[in-house]
Amino acid sequence: MVTQKPLKTAQDYLDAADREFENANALAATEHLWEAITCTLKAVAEEKGWEYDANHLFPVVEKLAGIDGKGDDVLQSTYLAAKTFPSKPRYGYFVWEDGDSHWMRRVTHEFISTVQELAGRSQ
Length: 123
Fold this sequence. Notes:
Blueprint: H1 4-22, H2 26-48, H3 58-65, H4 73-83, H5 87-90, H6 100-121
Helix pairs in contact: 1-2, 2-6, 3-4, 4-6
């Protein structure tokens, strides 16, 4: 299972995202959500001894998706969608009224939970 320090760091990013959303700073919030995801993926890769490029973590997602033998497209597509989170407020596509903040939070939490679950299965 992923060690407590990286999980704490990911949780710190999630908490920071919540604070930024509360302060109506969508750009900072979405950047923190993305950092929580990348922190979790790096921690898993390091724990498993997988080589990875910190700027290109999709291969880590692919390895995790292949753990249960199903080739989880949801995990891969979620990663790619989350990667665009900071672009949405930066380019004006983030809409508070549409619940974008709630959706992004939920997607991030579900992604991290799935990564942790799959990482635990591969031991």
